[in-house]
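Input sequence (830 aa), recorded before submission:
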Amino acid sequence: MKKKAETAAGNSQGIVRTLPLEEILSDRFARYSKYIIQERALPDARDGLKPVQRRILYAMQESGNTWDKPYHKSAKTVGNVIGNYHPHGDISVYDAMVRLSQDWKMNFPLIDMQGNNGSIDDDPAAAMRYTEARLAPVTGMLLQDIDKDTVEWAPNFSDEKMEPTVLPARYPNLLTMGISGIAAGYATNIPPHNMTEILDGAIELARNPDSKKLYDIVQGPDFPTGGIVMGRDGIRSAFDTGRGRIIIRSKCDIVPGKTVDQIIVTEIPYEVVKSGLVKKIDDIRLNRKAEGILDVRDESDRNGLRIAIDLKKDAPAETILNYLYKNTDLQVSFSYNMIAIVNRRPVLLGLRQAILAFLDHRREVILRRSAFDLKKKQERAHIQEGLIKAISIMDEVIALIRGARDKADAKSRLMEHFAFTAAQAEAIVMMRLYRLSHMDITQLEQEYAQLESEIAELEKILAQPKELDRVLTTELREVRRKFPMPRKSQIVDEVESIVIDPMAMIPDEPAMLAVTRQAYVKRSSLRSYNASGTDLPGLKEGDEVLAAGELRTRDQLLVFTERGRAGIVPVWQLEESRWKDTGMHLSALLKTEPNEQVAAVFVLRQTVEHLQVVQVSAHGQIKRSDIADFTALKPGRLTVSMKLGDLDRLNSVVISRSPEDRLGLMSVQGLGLQYEVQEIPQSGLKTKGVRGLSLVPDDEIAAVHVLDQEPVVILAADGSLKRLKREELPVLRRPAKGQRMFKQVKSRGYTISDMDCLPVHESVELVSGSDHSTIRASEIPLMTAASTFSRHSASLEQGRFLERLQPLENGTWAADEKEGTVQPTLFDEG
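Predicted structure, token format:
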């Protein structure tokens, strides 16, 4: 609601209005937006310049700072601009001036600057007190005829001087220069185009505004830094609608060498900072994200741009180059947004509309120039006509002038006696006697005839549109002749897709890896591992090593958690650390839940098939799935591999290579059995299992193992060990209860911790927290199931066998497994 309060003081009366804040802000921001759009950020479609650029060029022209004159200090020019035309900061004016001089941003710089005007490495220009500048020759084409009333003028900010609202512009500078800017609610982004093509296109549209040949003449953008422009569809969209997206790729060559191969970069995308590009490539080399890069050097000099990338002799050069295209500014996208001011309003222009706007402007300029010249020439012809007449009666004229009292009287008598006009009489009395010679009389007559011809030509331009367009196209051809431009950027029809073999980017080298129960994983170099002096890595308190071993950086880990979930982790994604460090948590790569522990880990090195994955829960549930279900998982995401009960957990996971494999199961209380893996029904992911072993109350699965012909080693929770033949483990049908595998002693109360198969000549590692021990199978007595445990190691209480990581290999499981597969029974439920 508006309120009005009036106050009076003496003879003056002031009115104070109270207005809503949103109304005030809306009004003020609308004014600000209009100013920003029209006077700051967006170019005029006619001359392609923003106001600050136009003021700089006009101020330099006005002060005589042209291409054929000596350089002026840049500070002098900046002071002239901000003092007369542009009431803003000197830094903004100098920055605009510097950009107009940079040949890596403009095909034809409008200012010729002497001194440090920056570089393609984004180095800042020297201070304005050090550099000197003058207009470039091509800028004369923008300013030509500005003194012939060809454009509208407006008062400057102080109303002391007049400035042009637009330049005459003899060529379509909006398209040839390239420009970008951000206003309130609008942004423009127009790339530079080829001068010759744009002029040819303008000539074609001057003849026929609806010509279909325009897109054949103007191929696309042409950048001062060259490069390869991909995607004619994007160019066509931009030319049709004013908006479109193109891809700009560096020009690169793969050069084979005797000791090293090289990728040589000679052209980079528009407005890419070369130093930043080199640094990015070098960071990839240092971080070893692309295996095979030895060195990156900037070898650019006065002869041109050159970046040399040294590669190992056997490195996949094409793959590395594609990786660099995708992950650096060797390839970038450019989005057209051709917005410019037309009739003081921002308009989205296509190529045709932009050129037609320029042509309309040029026609107006030529008409105004012709009218200006016509008036001047008519005035001059009128004077010449009077002089010729006066010379023909020179004796009478001289006598009349000699008899006059003064100049005014002489002019009056000439007008009265010979019917001269005031202008002619003035010229006659001011004429010098030497012009009465025969030669000068002849020159006057010739000049008059020339003026008559030129006046006829100008009247023809003003009266006939065809003659106007003839002059227009002639001037466009003249600009094309003076400023020819070979194309720098190559146009490619289709956007070339980048195909990268991710494995080719990974260094294939050995590494030591360890995975702990609490989901910590560590990748260390062999050098760090050998220097540690211990087989066990660094651990958090209460954690234990689940699996460890040597593998390669191109391998993948298949990880199972106790919550019945599985995921793939590429080894190269693991941060390299010292063997004694704790390592990184898998939650960074697999998004595990809090306190989610690891149940099993396997190594995938190649495409494996004909393998079966057997999962067993602590409550005795078991399921079998094809390895393909797991290798198809996307890295970085956990997927349910086995549905579990509320209080259940995934205890063990083993790999079966053959349908005849025998699976050994052992409970904590020592009940064990064996049966063929093919007795377990096959099912996919996200399903429950069937009962694999009937457990007594308070009992659970302790260990599961695919048995071979070697004896079975059983580890008790108190560190006791025993070894027995595989045949001692009873062969029963699933889901039998199993038989006890040791003689229970009341004084000790054995419970089972782990089980493994071990040849007599090999050793096994036992771990318990940070303690570990190695024992040979031959040191463990071979016993029967009816006997108790023998060897005891008190330091390995609650211990287990350390799993050694090895890549999985193909198995022999048949594709059709209907025969020999035991289906679930009623006893399998729960």
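Checked by second reader. Confidence is low (pLDDT under 50) at residues 1-12, 815-830.
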